[in-house]
Fold these 2 entries.
Entry 1:
Amino acid sequence: MDSNHIYYLSLSELSQLIQKKEISPVELVEALLTRIETIEPKLNSFITLLPEQAIENAKALEKEIQEGKYRGPLHGIPFGLKDLYYVKGIRNTSGTKIFHDFFPNYDSTVAFKLKKAGAILLGKLNLHPFAYGVTGENEEYGHMHNPWNLNLITGGSSGGNGSAVASGECPFAMGSDTGGSIRIPSSLCGIVGFKPTYGRISRYGITPLAWSQDHPGPMARTVEDCALIMNAVAGYDPNDLTSANLSVPDYTQGLKKGIKGLRLGIIKEAIELPIEPFVKDSFWKAVDQLVDLETIVSEVSFPVYYYASSIASVIQMAEATAYHSETIKSHGERIYPPVRLRLESGIFISATDYIQAQRARTLFCRQSLDLFNKVDLLLTPTLPTVAFPIGTSSVKIEGQKINVVSLLTQFTRPFNLNGFPAITVPCGFSENQLPIGLQIIGRPFDEETLLRVAYAYEQATEWHLKRPFP
Amino acid sequence: MDRETFNSMAKEFGLEAEEAHMEELFLYIQKIWPALKRFYELDLKDLEPFMPVYSFKE
């Protein structure tokens, strides 16, 4: 095996090689650590690297394989965690030096499950401070850099995940998504990012941003890899009060069943928002591709969509400020200035504003569910644009100057508000070779159908095979 | 939101910062408030607040 290529194999391919003993977990970890050593100075994906621990774990897991104890598809697979997933005894910064000396004394449920599945933690990944931002800019730990063009943003808040997975530093990473923080960096870095239904993956031991809109989820290079990760991390957790006590399917089983006859809806109100023409073009080509796969596409109307950002922002601001209130009071001056403004502005959301927004959320959820009487899935571009230079505060599209938070969340945030599952898959490239994403949204707890469509689209195209570095 | 209400809510929360920062925060809120409060245009009659489904069971 040419080690130059190990780092770009999918989780699924690596898993088969490990099971067949064609590569060992130790070889794999060493190859990825070499890859990280080479490109990390350019990308800044990690806050904490754990090379010694990873090698130790790999040796133990290799011994198990030699003894015939195979735990499953994640056995011996290295991965990264956004630096807000607690791991016992490992620094957890949440992207700010205010928490640089915080070492949790327990594992998040996701970290625990991945450990049990035999996955090997390579390190904790960089993020927008407090996960409260969409660009992946972090002055304290250094900005994250997009592997397709190092001067551009990765997107955020799970920006380190995006750059690490896209560049072959690790085959997968776990992110979190409150307004798009998995899907935004996945789209901008050209990988697959999956936000399952709220309650499907436990939030226990993950630093909150806004409890009622936080979703953990996987980021990987293929849809099948996301399904494999879901098999390990999804499921009921009594430690999370909002965890869904539902049976969990094998997410890989339905992937290849085909998508003929499925009804796909295009949200009229979404595609009327400002979108770069080349993104629109890629989106419609993706729709055509799905029609070729014998799905039935129609336009649907979702009038309350226009209000999603307003409703979700009020709720998010109030919850984020409540969670971080002591930090705001005691360390305000140390908080990254744009994040500080966002956190402090939540002080001025009244209890009435919060409750009225929750009432509007009920309306939003009802209209969302009504749509699924007409269609099986919804489609939007993931983002209206591609990656732009680090330091950009607004972008002009169709003559409108739009601030980057509003712009990057216009198609993602609504599905944090209703908690419905949503995935982004690569669907094209701009003229200057920057990735574009297609977002597919499903019914609550029907991740299987969503993954099936994403897989069918991915297999019919080659966008997911393009790489930023040799 | 007028400056008096802003000062009063900041004080009640316990927010203490330099005057220049408070001015920046006040201006920031003035800027984002109209878009944030847009949902008040919706008819919320007969709607209860959204409740997360705790330990949803089959």
Entry 2:
Amino acid sequence: MNTHQAELDTRGLNCPLPILRAKKSLSQLTAGEILQIRATDPGSVKDFEAFCKQTGNELLSSSEVGGEFIFLLKKQ
Amino acid sequence: MAKRLKAAERRASILAVAKVLFADKGYHGVAVDEIASRLGVSPAVLYHHFPSKEALYGEVLDTLAAQRESYVDAALQSPDDFGSVLLRMTLVFASSVARDPDYLKMEMLSTLEGAQVARQFFESHWKSFSDYIEYSMRELSQQNAVSQINPRTAGLMFQGMVREALYAKCILHSSRYQSTHLPDLITQLVGLFLNAIQYKE
């Protein structure tokens, strides 16, 4: 299981807020560190795929438990 | 007899026909049987792809909206201050509506038809803007970068302004705004909005 260095709670927020907050959180990490993001917007799955494609960060995992989404992003 | 189509093609054809009918008659004005009959298939074929009329309507809304990737792209470009992100996202939204004005017809009809369908519209499209404005203004007001206006009311002002511009340009083709291109009109309106909330970068 991946350990993470930072957490971001975007539950209740809709696009573009989760990705803007993720961008800000990642800017405070160093390369190789992992950010865990929690979200409730079902669209966030596609959003974080697009986010990683465009920013070059790595989407390590994307999972859903009871309507809540958890993403692990590794900073490039 | 209807030609046999692959699942993805069938799904796309159902969405295309449903969109036209929903835009003409509204959610309540269209029966599943009518969509099936236009396609030359049985209602069971529709239910195979979409569990209910409501689910089908929701999917039509999603396909009409701009691709989420375009919004992510608009949000991530520089400069990334509130005003610039809001403008880019609004331009993405406006261009998607201009490409497919059936979206606006569906929205107008949904407003007349009832709260549930109109709420679905709000949740699918306008909520992103309203939430973005509301949360950002709360943060910006702490830095005195916007005036002390109720952020929720500001979101409503923004929504009304943009929607009216889209109606005038994409549905009514109003001669009054004919000489102004939609992106220019949207840029001017977003500028007015930012002035109204006394936004300072």
